[in-house]
């Protein structure tokens, strides 16, 4: 009789919840009717994760486990749980109203995560590790840009108050010319001049090193994103940094987003009603992942300046009385739809490897090609090297070369 009761207890459906931190995770277990069963704390190590999973399994058949911070502090536990066949769902932290009502502690948060998994409020699968390398390269490249910007600002600030001789020599220079001149300088003279020039030279060399570092990281990032999703990278206006951000936002398993509307909402590109009285309009969304929203914004600006279809669309919407903000919102929503297709489907891109050899074999210059199609030579060069994509121009260019 006792064995039968123990067997029934083991087979009871339970739900888990995890509140994650840097050094510890707090795990809670509830029954399928929401009753609290047990909770415990474990270390964020491989043995700790194994003990936490054994703790969950000891209380019954684990239907789902809600984890708070699956892409940050809970990433290690999430990997271990999925490797052992546990279903993990991503849980957002409780809102402020609920925290004010129920309090804040590790057990409270862990039980709240378990209830979110039980109720179905948390259903999103966590991101997998496919884009972990892209995320690391992207963060490193952006930190290099921030550090370079800080160094450039310091150079400008020092030159404002520098001695007249230094200001006269370097103040009128701009950009790379100023950085290279300062990096070649030889601090000499009195103590004031020597100290200022030494600081400027050090900052200039830092800028040059960070620029080289950023270029190296960007090349590696471009290789990674092109390998993971060549269709996304080849889309018009999508560079390495933008493609990386969109892949990071979607994760390596974008099938967890059921519709393109959910991806648009995730990127903060879903239209938000802003109607009142006789006014019927929508405004820009201020929610979602702001970094992904900024990526869509950069794509929209690039297409508004260089894509013929987009420029025609902008002219048409402007004539209809829409403002620039409204047009950009509509463009971002349309771009989100296109990006979602690139993320969830294998998008074929036209082969361009034959274009340059074919042109060179017929002794045709880039200038001649550009003049024929009415574009800049740089456009043709970038098309041949795969740095930009224009399917219509690619097909027309190949047909023209073959007929030449």
Give a brief rundown of this model.
Residues 355-386 form the HTH cro/C1-type domain. With 404 residues, the protein is of the alpha/beta class. The protein is built from 19 helices and seven strands.
What do you see in this structure?
It contains 19 helices and seven strands. It is α/β, with parallel strands linked by helices and 404 residues long. The chain has four domains: 2-119, Nucleotidyltransferase, domain 5; 132-228; 241-343, no CATH class; 355-403, 434 Repressor (Amino-terminal Domain) (Orthogonal Bundle), CATH 1.10.260. The chain starts with a helix and ends with a helix. Residues 355-386 form the HTH cro/C1-type domain. It holds the Pfam family DEDD_Tnp_IS110. InterPro entries: Cro/C1-type_HTH, Lambda_DNA-bd_dom_sf, Transp_IS110-like_N, Transpos_IS110, Transposase_20.
Computed structural class: alpha/beta
Which range does the strand content fall in?
5-15%
Overall number of structural domains? 4
What radius of gyration results from the CA coordinates? 28 Å
Question: Percent of residues in helical segments?
Answer: 55-70%
Please report the first level of CATH classification, the CATH class of the largest domain.
Alpha Beta
CATH homologous superfamily descriptor of the largest domain: YqgF/RNase H-like domain
State the major sheet.
5 strands, mixed
Shape: globular
Number of helices: 19
How far apart the termini lie comes to 90 Å
Order of helices and strands: HEEEHEHEHHHHHHHHHEEHHHHHHH
Q: Order of strands side by side in the largest beta sheet? A: 3-2-1-4-5
Structure summary, number of beta strands: 7
User: Uncertain runs with pLDDT below 50, 5 residues or more?
Assistant: 1-10
Q: Return the average pLDDT rounded to an integer.
A: 87
CATH architectural label of the largest domain = 2-Layer Sandwich
CATH topology call of the largest domain: Nucleotidyltransferase, domain 5
Organism: Streptomyces salyersiae
InterPro entries: Cro/C1-type_HTH, Lambda_DNA-bd_dom_sf, Transp_IS110-like_N, Transpos_IS110, Transposase_20
Domain HTH cro/C1-type: 355-386
Protein name: IS110 family transposase
């Amino acid at each position: 009789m006792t064995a039968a009761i123990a067997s029934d207890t083991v087979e009871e459906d339970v739900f888990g919840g995890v509140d994650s931190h840097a050094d510890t995770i707090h795990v809670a277990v509830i029954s399928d009717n929401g009753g609290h069963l047990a909770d415990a704390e474990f270390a964020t190590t491989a043995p700790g994760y194994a003990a936490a999973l054994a703790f969950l399994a000891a209380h019954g058949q684990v239907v789902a486990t809600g984890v708070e911070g699956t892409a940050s502090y809970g990433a290690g536990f999430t990997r271990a749980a999925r490797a052992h066949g546990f279903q993990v769902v991503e849980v957002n932290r409780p809102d402020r109203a609920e925290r004010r009502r129920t309090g804040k502690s590790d057990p409270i948060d862990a039980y709240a995560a378990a209830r979110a998994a039980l109720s179905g409020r948390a259903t999103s699968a966590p991101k997998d590790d496919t884009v972990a390398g892209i995320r690391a390269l992207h963060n490193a490249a952006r930190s290099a840009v921030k550090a370079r910007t800080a160094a450039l600002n310091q150079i400008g600030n020092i030159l404002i108050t520098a001695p007249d001789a230094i200001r006269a020599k370097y103040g009128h220079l701009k950009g790379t010319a100023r950085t290279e001149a300062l990096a070649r300088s030889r601090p000499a003279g009195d103590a004031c001049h020597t100290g200022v020039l030494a600081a400027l030279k050090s900052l200039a060399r830092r800028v040059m090193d960070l620029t080289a570092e950023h270029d190296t990281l960007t090349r590696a990032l471009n290789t990674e994103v092109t390998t993971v999703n060549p269709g996304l990278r080849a889309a018009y206006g999508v560079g390495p940094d933008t493609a990386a951000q969109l892949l990071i936002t979607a994760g390596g398993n974008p099938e967890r987003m059921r519709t393109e509307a959910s991806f648009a909402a995730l990127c903060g590109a879903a239209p938000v009603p802003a109607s009142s009285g006789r006014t019927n309009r929508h405004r820009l969304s201020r929610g979602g992942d702001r970094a992904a929203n900024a990526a869509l914004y950069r794509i929209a600006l690039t297409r508004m300046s260089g894509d013929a279809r987009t420029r025609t669309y902008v002219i048409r919407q402007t004539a209809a009385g829409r403002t620039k903000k409204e047009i950009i919102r509509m463009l971002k929503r349309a771009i989100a739809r296109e990006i979602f297709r690139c993320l969830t489907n294998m998008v074929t891109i036209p082969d361009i490897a034959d274009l340059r050899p074919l042109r060179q074999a017929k002794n045709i210059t880039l200038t001649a090609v550009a003049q024929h199609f009415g574009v800049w030579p740089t456009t043709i060069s970038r098309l041949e090297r795969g740095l930009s994509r224009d399917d219509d121009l690619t097909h027309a260019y190949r047909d023209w070369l073959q007929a030449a």
